[in-house]
Amino acid sequence: YNIYFEYYNCLYLLAQMHFLIAHNLEKDNPTERGEELLKEITKHYRHALAIFEAIKAEIPEKVQPQEIPNDLSQNYLSYCSVLCTISGQLNLIEVAEIRKTSPELISKLANGVSGLYGEAYNIANEAPASKYVDGDFKNFLLFSKYFFIAKMFFKLRDNKQKFFNEKGTEFGAIIVYQETAANKLLEAKKYAAKCGKFANPEEIEKQIQ
């Protein structure tokens, strides 16, 4: 009997609890989220992330490899950590938009989130995480990767638009960013149609602007 096995299972459940609290706060407040609520949601995602990372760092030294279940494996804990990071970053983007932060900064945040979705997709295709993540959600991860890279280019376009409005410059960059964003959005649409309940293709244009 290994008491550490029970200990890390309890920690995993605690991390799940924090993640579900954050998720339910989001679900119960789908549209009107002030900064204070976003901070509360992000706090729970950060707690979950810290616990998942602690388990990942400690369990190999305390529990024999053959005794570690799939949901406590390095692969699956990495997947959980990335999802927590993504969720926190999405709230950061929402706060930035509430504060009317510069399009350039929001573009950087969107680029980071896109990369995290790509990382989550790669991990989700490796065992044992691949056993737990269904095909619709894997398509959602790809959809989100392209959705947020499109958002990055739209925000870069908006940033250049300011220069054009003020000085009449950067028109060429505006066109390039607009076309690139539109192409990435088309890529996102391909996967949105395969996401099942996780994405609504008809809402993409409304959300991206």
- The portion of residues forming beta strands comes to under 5%
Largest sheet: none
The helix-and-strand class reads mainly alpha
Q: Give start-end ranges of low-pLDDT stretches.
A: none
What's the total count of β strands? 0
Q: What's the SSE pattern?
A: HHHHHHHH
* Rg over C-alpha atoms, rounded to the nearest angstrom: 19 Å
Number of helices: 8
Measure the end-to-end span.
Answer: 56 Å
Q: Which of globular, elongated, flat, extended, rod-shaped describes the shape?
A: elongated
- Average pLDDT rating: 90
The helix content is over 70%
Descriptive account of the structure:
With 209 residues, the chain is mostly helical. 79% of the residues lie in helices and 0% in strands. The longest helix is centred in the last third of the chain and has 33 residues, at 135-167. The mean pLDDT is 90.
Topology:
Elements: H1 3-28, H2 35-62, H3 74-98, H4 103-124, H5 129-132, H6 135-167, H7 171-192, H8 204-208
Helix pairs in contact: 1-2, 2-3, 3-4, 4-6, 6-7
List keywords for this structure.
79% helix; 8 helices; elongated; mainly alpha; 209 residues; 0% strand
